[in-house]
Specification:
Blueprint (H helix, E strand, L loop, with lengths): L8 H16 L4 H8 L3 H8 L7 H10 L4 H12 L6 E4 L3 H12 L4 E6 L10 H11 L5 H14 L10 E7 H5 L5 H14 L5 E6 L13 E5 L6 E5 L3 E5 L2 H17 L3 H14 L1
Parallel strand pairs: 2-3, 3-4
Antiparallel strand pairs: 1-7, 2-5, 5-6, 6-7
Helix pairs in contact: 1-5, 2-3, 4-5, 6-8, 7-8, 10-12
């Protein structure tokens, strides 16, 4: 979808952080406006990236929110590079990577997610998510696992809200057959997939193993489409989350998705396969 080409992914990320930091400081937009001598509408526009942000205004907000010097410099550096295309961030753990994705998942009109290893995050059950997280890192404490599961579950609220986005979830058959957490957990995950696939805003497609080699072997990705803002591609690996917004990148991933869908079963056939595999568990 066409959008405002001047609203870069970095600007949108700064805006999301400003909103989150204000809320953590337990301040309203009116509080900030009154203290800094700004209009309430300007504070609101800055938090939605619907107008330009001046370094001085952002720095004043960060000071009001008592943001650490390191975090303050990170946000201001991002703002100074706001006109650059694309954005990536390397983190030591998953919480920040997911938080960045949540900021963008909350706004799109359509999400298209291909996964070749695990169930799409927006369709995972809590117990599947926990088993997956602990399988990836068995050094996590129960408390750390609880926080990560809660973070991932919070992402799913976007699918059931008023004016929920359309979700196209495409998965390799291998995803459905990998026994994450054991048979019981996987069985319930498959039933959950089947139930959610019946929602009017969710479409599930499966690429059967018999498809052989296909473009999905190159990895998972998510395309987020917005109304009035540029679309994004999100790619995540072991410790890096990337948001791509160049026209060439978007075109490349859309072509990849088109090729994947050409190899995938239709929605009704996909639902039948999910039920069949669930019955085998």
């Amino acid at each position: 979808m066409p959008g405002n080409g001047h609203t870069s992914v970095r600007s949108r990320q700064v805006a999301a952080q400003l909103r989150r930091l204000r809320e953590q400081a337990q301040l309203s937009c009116s509080d900030v406006a009154r203290t800094l001598g700004l209009s309430v509408s300007k504070v609101s526009r800055m938090e939605t990236a619907s107008s330009g942000m001046q370094i001085e205004d952002v720095a004043a907000m960060l000071g009001l929110y008592k943001v650490s010097a390191t975090k303050r410099q990170e946000i201001l550096d991002m703002l100074r590079r706001a006109d650059e295309k694309g954005w990536w961030q390397r983190q030591a753990g998953l919480p920040q990577l997911w938080r960045n994705l949540i900021d963008f998942e909350a706004k799109p009109t359509r999400i298209q997610n291909f996964e070749n290893m695990v169930v799409p995050g927006l369709l995972q059950t809590a117990e599947y998510c926990r088993a997956l997280i602990q399988g990836i890192n068995d050094t996590l404490s129960d408390e750390e696992s609880d926080r990560l599961v809660a973070t991932r579950m919070a992402r799913q609220a976007v699918l059931t809200r008023t004016r929920a986005p359309q979700l196209l979830a495409v998965a390799d058959e291998n995803v459905l057959r990998r026994p994450v957490g054991g048979d019981g957990i996987m069985h319930r995950q498959l039933l959950h997939l089947g139930t959610f696939a019946e929602r009017p805003n969710i479409t599930l497609r499966v690429v059967q193993s018999s498809a052989g080699a296909y473009v999905g072997a190159r990895g998972s990705f998510m395309i987020l489409e917005f109304d009035g803002e540029p679309d994004l591609v999100h790619v995540e690996n072991q410790s890096t989350g990337m948001f791509l917004e160049e026209d060439a990148d978007l075109a490349s991933y859309r072509l990849a998705l088109s090729n994947i869908l050409s190899a995938a079963l239709k929605p009704a056939e996909s639902a039948d396969l999910v039920r069949q595999i669930a019955a085998e568990e």
